[in-house]
Amino acid sequence: MRRRSSGILTLALTLGLSVPLQPALAQSTAPQPTDSRTADTQNGDAASLQSVVARFQQESAAAEARDAERLQALLNDGSALDDALSEAQTRLEAAQSRRNELEARQQSQQARLDALAQSRGDDAGDIEQVSSIVKGQAGELRDALGNAWVTVGGDAELPPRLDDRGLIDIDTLDGVRNDLAALIAESGRGVRFTAPVAGTDGDVTRREVIRLGDTLAFSDGELLERSGDEGRLTAYSRTPARIQGALRAFQAGESDSVVIDPTDGDVLDAFAQQPTLWERFNQGGYVGYVIVALGLLGLLVALAQYLYLLSVSRRTQRQMNHPESLSDDNPLGRVLNRFAALGHNHAPEALEARLDEALLAEQPRLERGQPVVKLIAAVAPLLGLLGTVTGMIITFQSITVFGTGDPQLMAGGISQALVTTVLGLITAVPLLFANTALSSRSRRLLGQLEGRASAVLADHLEAETRAANAQERSHGAHA
User: How far is the C-alpha of 80 from the C-alpha of 459, rounded, in Å?
Assistant: First the structure.
C-alpha cells in the first residue's frame, strides 16, 4: 500500500497541480497616478490588468478541476495503476539491457577503430615521408635549374612544383621521373636553334644560338647568359677577343675545339668586371691625368734631346774624320775654331783655360732636357702617392656612410686609389731609363770633345816647344 501511495504521489506531481494566484498581487502592483494629466491613462491600464488577472484565475481554476478529476480516477482504479507501473518497469529493464548491449558493441567498435587508425597511421607515415622528400627534391631542382641551359632549345622541362599538393600518387612520380630523365639527356646534347638575343647595346635580334649541354651557349662569337625571371638570353658585357675567335670558328664549322668556363661563370664574370685600359686610366681621376701629361711631356723632351744628341754624334764623328776643315755645325768644330782664333802668343795656362771655357759653353746644349726628365721621373711617384692618399680618404668616407657590410665597395675604392700609384710608377720607370740614356750619350760626347781638345792643345804646345828649340839651336850656331 505504501508503494502504491508513493507511485500515486509521483504521478500526481508529474501531472502537476495548479496553485491559484492571489488577487492581492495584482492589486499591490498597480501604480498610483502622479498628476491629473495622466490619471485617465493610469485608469485604463489598471482596468486592462484586472481583466487579464481575472481570465488567468478562471483558467487556473479549470486546470485544478481537471487535475483533481484525473487524480481521483487513478485513485479509484488501482489495478490499472499497478499494470502501468509493471509495464513501465519491464520497459525500463529492457532498455537497460539494450543499453548494456550497445555499450559493449561500442567498446568493440572503438577498439577496432583504434586498431585501424594505428595501421593507417603507420602506412600513411611512410607515404607522407616519401611525398615530402619528392616535394622537397622537386622544389630544390627547380630552384637550382631555374636559369640552366638544359631547358633552352630542347624538349626538356623542369618538374612541376608539388608543394601545394597532398600525397604524391604514382602518376606524379612517373612524371617527375620522366622530367629528370629528359634533363639528364639534354645535359649531354649540343643543340643549334634560333632565339631572340639581347646584345650588349640592348637591341634584341633573332640569332642562331649553339648550346652545349648545360655548360655554355654562344652566338656570333659572344657568350650568352640567362637573365631575369623569364630567363632571357643576353650577351655577356665583355667576351675576350681570343675566345670570340674560337667560338666563331666552331659555329662556322671551321674548328672542332670550343672554349668553356669550368667555374660556372666565375671566370667570365671576372673578365666582364675587368676594366679596359681606357677605363683604368679614367679611374685615376685628375691626379692621374696630371701624371700622364707630365709623363708624355718628359718622354717628348727626352726623345727630342736624344735625337739631337744622335745628330751631334754623327756631325762630331764627321768632324773628327776631317780635322783639316772645321765646321760650326758641331761642338768640336766650334771649340777648335775658337781655339784657333786665340793665336799663338798666349801662355799654355791661358790656352787651357780658354779651351775649358769653350767646352763649358758646349755642355748646356749637350745636357739640355735632362734636368726636366729627371725632375718628372722623381715627381711622378709622389703624385701617384698623393692620388692614392686622396682615394683612400674617399674610400673611408664611403665606409663611414655605408659601413663595412659590403667588401666589394671597399675593394673597388681601394683599387681606384691605387691606380694613381701605378700610373706614377709607369711614368717614372721609362723616364729614368731615358734620363740614363741621355746622360750616358752626353757624357760620351763631352769626353770626345775634351779628349780631342786636349790633343789639339798638346799638339799646339809641342809645336811651339819644337819651334823654340829650333830657334835656340839656330842662335847658338850663329854665335
Answer: 182
d(CA 55, CA 39): 25
Residue with cell string 757624357 = 443
The residues near 280 (Cβ < 8 Å, ≥ 6 apart) are 419
Please, which residues have CB within 8 angstroms of residue 71's CB and are 6 or more apart in sequence? 8, 12, 15
Tell how strand 222-227 and strand 190-198 pair up: unpaired
Between CA 153 and CA 161, with CA 159 as vertex, the angle to 5 degrees is: 130
Q: For the chain, which ranges sit under pLDDT 70?
A: 1-47, 70-71, 74-78, 80-81, 84, 120-126, 163-167, 229, 264-265, 268-269, 271-275, 340-350, 402-413, 458-465, 467-469, 471-472, 475-479
19: CB partners within 8 A, 6+ apart: 60
Measure the CA–CA gap between 240 and 10, rounded to whole angstroms. 110
| CA distance readout (Å), 158 to 142, 228, 412 | 6, 17, 39
pTM of the model: 0.49
What ranges do the domains of the chain cover? Answer: 189-263, 281-478
Residue with C-alpha cell 811651339? 464
Q: Are 236 and 272 in contact (CB under 8 A)?
A: yes
CA within 13 Å, CB half, 171: 0
